[in-house]
Q: What sequence folds into this?
């Protein structure tokens, strides 16, 4: 009996020891190995409040501030802490209705009765200044600081982009972002989001069982500071950008100006445009919907790198360059023009013309015959082979492909391959005359204003260009994406560029027959080329490309004015004014400026579109 008692005693002791060991091991795992339970407990006594960083500022090339930040506030609520209060006064202070109040409170309770959630987003600094004096009257509510974008001038919306709140799809795609975060959309804001956004911080507070803050946790030693985003110096000249937008008021089209030696975009205008301030704060959603609903003028559509136009006669210089390089003509080669070539019409001018005269007078006949020589060059086995060689040159200029700028929705335009024509006419079933309209920039070819400005910069540089880009430098170390420092060389001899440039100089500064004399400037040698781009939906588009000064180019520009007719009528004057504004800082031809500023081509377009 005694032995049985002793055995039972040791069994019980063993079980107690075993249970104690198991309990100790379990506690060790819970407290040391796994932190799930500890975090759960912490979350019941700690509140983590995000500290949002100030977004980086954006400046123009001369240090003028374009985009900065203004204070805004999110009103937070913890439903369990709310009590009796003057709801009417509360709603009046915030400018909301009682129905909105009830709906927001319902949403907050459904989210969590004890955890904080956003009751009202983006309260202005003015509203907050008044509200904070009374916030003690509204238990359960507190304010979390935020920042919103502010613009020094209501310009450059298509260049800058905007900032909006992240959605669930983006949060799933990129774990960096959390509900309530903001992200850049379009333009500089999107292209340089990672630089501009900075880094979030966090403050940790102790809260009681009713979720009331009792003080900082660990004396704030575990808090992290928000780090402001990097500032950006853009290549934009703010004064030139603003002037370009004024010139394009009541017109549809685009202006792109580039610094040839760097590829930096000096101005990028897409018209009609909009005030970037419309897409800031609580009014953003409503304004965005309104802008998007405008199907006539499409102000959100960036024509500068998304609209595809025929280049028209502005394309003649590149065909001249290719013909010289392929040795199918020399500068002195002359062709007759009897008001056209075969079925292609041409305007009245002196004849015959050499290359310089053909560019100066914009002779269709000359370039049809030149283009035919390019495609019927006997050193190639077929028209198709010669066409692909011609197309390769165009690709070198940046046509028919994306240039690689920061714009995420840049379009490549179109330079169709020989296979494109094989599908329509059968292999070997087409010839030079089949595609002769591309001799003067019509037919199947499509380009964007950005590509046209880049092409002009390549001519100004006598055979090379840098990828067009918006940003000059990023952050305190003035870094830039290396791809924008790569020089793209074109396989056409620089001497050939000089011959074509003589023609472009004569087009602006020549005598009788010069098609772009309206673009001439005193003291500045402008080289340019007019174009009239055919438009199957209405009046032709007015087109002009130019660079200046001739021997030390500082600006290359492309202008499209839709439904405006000849290139010399509207696009050339606009380009000339932009060049003078940039190089001189002032305008000498005030009557021309006034005429362009007062010109209204929008009302007639609206009537035309309504009829359609």
A:
């Amino acid at each position: 009996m005694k032995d049985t008692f002793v055995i039972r005693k040791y069994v019980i002791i063993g079980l107690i020891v075993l249970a104690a060991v198991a309990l100790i091991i379990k506690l060790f795992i819970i407290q040391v190995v796994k932190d799930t339970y500890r975090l759960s407990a912490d979350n019941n006594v700690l509140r983590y409040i995000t500290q949002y960083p100030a977004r980086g500022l954006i400046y123009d090339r001369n240090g003028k501030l374009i985009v900065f930040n203004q204070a805004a506030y999110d009103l937070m609520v913890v439903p369990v802490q709310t009590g009796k209060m003057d709801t009417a006064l509360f709603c009046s202070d915030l400018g909301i209705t009682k129905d909105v109040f009830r709906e927001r409170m319902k949403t907050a309770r459904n989210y969590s009765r004890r955890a904080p959630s956003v009751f009202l987003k983006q309260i202005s600094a003015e509203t907050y200044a008044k509200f904070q004096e009374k916030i003690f009257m509204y238990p359960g509510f507190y304010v979390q600081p935020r920042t919103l974008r502010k613009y020094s001038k209501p310009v450059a919306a298509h260049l800058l982009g905007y900032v909006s709140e992240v959605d669930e799809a983006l949060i799933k795609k990129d774990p960096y972002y959390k509900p309530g975060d903001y992200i850049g959309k379009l333009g500089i804001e999107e292209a340089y989001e990672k630089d501009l956004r900075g880094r979030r911080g966090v403050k940790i507070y102790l809260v009681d069982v009713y979720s009331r803050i009792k003080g900082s946790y660990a004396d704030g030693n575990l808090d992290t500071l928000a780090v402001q985003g990097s500032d950006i110096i853009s290549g934009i000249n703010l004064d030139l950008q603003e002037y370009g937008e004024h010139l394009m008021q009541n017109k549809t089209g685009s202006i792109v100006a580039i610094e040839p030696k760097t590829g930096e975009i000096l101005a990028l205008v897409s018209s009609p445009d909009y005030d970037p301030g419309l897409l800031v704060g609580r009014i953003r959603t409503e304004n965005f919907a309104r802008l998007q609903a405008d199907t006539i003028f499409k102000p959100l559509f960036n024509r500068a790198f998304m609209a595809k136009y025929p280049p028209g006669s502005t394309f003649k210089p590149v065909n001249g360059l290719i013909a010289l390089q392929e040795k199918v003509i020399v500068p002195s080669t002359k062709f007759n023009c009897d008001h056209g070539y075969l079925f292609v019409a041409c305007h009245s001018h002196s004849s015959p013309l050499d290359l310089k005269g053909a560019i100066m007078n914009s002779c269709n006949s000359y370039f049809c015959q030149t283009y035919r020589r390019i495609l019927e060059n006997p050193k190639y086995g077929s028209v198709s082979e010669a066409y692909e060689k011609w197309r390769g040159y165009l690709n070198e200029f940046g046509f028919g492909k994306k240039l690689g700028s920061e714009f995420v929705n840049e379009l490549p335009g179109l330079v169709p391959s020989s296979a494109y024509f094989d599908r329509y006419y059968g292999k070997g079933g087409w010839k030079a005359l089949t595609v002769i309209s591309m001799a003067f920039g019509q037919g199947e070819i499509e380009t964007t204003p950005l590509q046209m400005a880049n092409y002009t910069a390549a001519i100004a540089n006598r055979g090379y260009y840098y990828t067009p880009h918006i940003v000059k430098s990023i952050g305190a170390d003035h870094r830039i994406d290396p791809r924008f420092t790569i020089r793209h060389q074109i396989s056409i001899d620089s001497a050939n560029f000089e011959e074509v440039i003589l023609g472009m100089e004569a087009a602006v500064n020549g005598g009788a027959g010069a098609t772009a004399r309206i673009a001439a400037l005193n003291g500045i040698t402008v080289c340019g080329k007019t174009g009239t781009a055919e438009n199957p939906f209405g009046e032709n588009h007015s087109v002009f490309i130019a660079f200046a000064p001739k021997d030390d180019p500082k600006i290359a520009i492309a202008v499209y004015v839709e439904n405006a007719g000849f290139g010399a009528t509207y696009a050339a004057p606009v380009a000339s004014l932009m060049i003078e504004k940039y190089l001189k800082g002032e305008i000498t031809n005030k009557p021309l400026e006034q005429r362009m500023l007062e010109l209204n081509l929008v009302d007639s377009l609206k009537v035309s579109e309504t009829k359609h």
Q: What stands out?
A: The first strand starts at residue 46 and ends at 51. Residues 2-33 form the longest helix (32 residues). The chain is about 35% helix and 20% strand. The CA atoms of residues 309 and 446 lie 5 Å apart.
